[in-house]
Amino acid sequence: QIVLTQSPAIMSASPGEKVTMTCSASSSVSYMHWYQQKSGTSPKRWIYDTSKLASGVPVRFSGSGSGTSYSLTISSMEAEDAATYYCQQWSSNPPTFGGGTKLEIK
Amino acid sequence: QVQLKESGPGLVAPSQSLSITCTVSGFSLTDYGVSWIRQPPGKGLEWLGVIWGGGSTYYNSALKSRLSISKDNSKSQVFLKMNSLQTDDTAMYYCAKKAQLGWYFDVWGAGTTVTVSS
User: Do residue A97 and residue B108 have CB atoms under 8 angstroms apart?
Assistant: First the structure.
């Protein structure tokens, strides 16, 4: 199965700061998908097909990448962005998730 | 409005079996795949298996021997059964709908907590 490795595991950012987190796949994947999860709630589709924002996701978020290397970027950190972000692939079975990046606000 | 809602027993004794139901609304189970995904406390997400619109299933190989997923289209319900539970099966269990055009989960249920303890 394809293993997804997210880094960093934990990070913090100040309001207004640019944030980038990465997801590395053990084999090439066609697309990467990202979910946002806040404490006590279920994951929400956040970015799909590598770079498409789900409905309601602020435009300060963006996704990019190809092959084995993907990233999620926040152009200007806001307090509401504090959450854990998971990447996910289903280019090959079984679908797998990364271990998550916990993003905290400074 | 597409919704999924899980319901389960809450507490399961070690070595016993688990049965969870996912009741969906706003879409037909004959048209979409529904997956089960779990999350142990403070940890990441683990995909368990999927049942497709036609009724075929595919399981996480690590759990395949203990898992069974079925559904009742007429009742809009998907069922997860897992045998021989141990303490490391303690987790939040989610059902999630696969997106129509992409290979990701576009709508998730709120989850149901399962604790394995005597």
Answer: no
Give the separation between CA A93 and CA A8, rounded to whole angstroms: 25
Q: Which residue is listed with tokens 């004959």?
A: B30
Q: Which residue numbers of A have CB closer than 8 Å to B's CBs? A: 1, 31, 33, 35, 41-45, 48-49, 54, 86, 88-91, 93-100
Q: Distance from CA of residue A21 to its chain's centroid?
A: 7
Inter-chain contact B45–A97, Cβ cutoff 8 Å? Answer: yes
Tell me whether residues B106 and A45 touch, CB distance under 8 A.
Answer: yes
A53-73 pLDDT per residue, tens: 999 999 999 999 999 999 999
Q: What is the mean pLDDT of each run of 10 residues along chain A (106 residues)?
A: 97 98 98 97 98 98 98 98 98 97 97
**Shortest Cα distance, chain B CAs vs residue A15, angstroms:** 26
- Going along B28-82, which residue ranges are E strands? 34-39, 46-51, 57-59, 67-72, 77-82
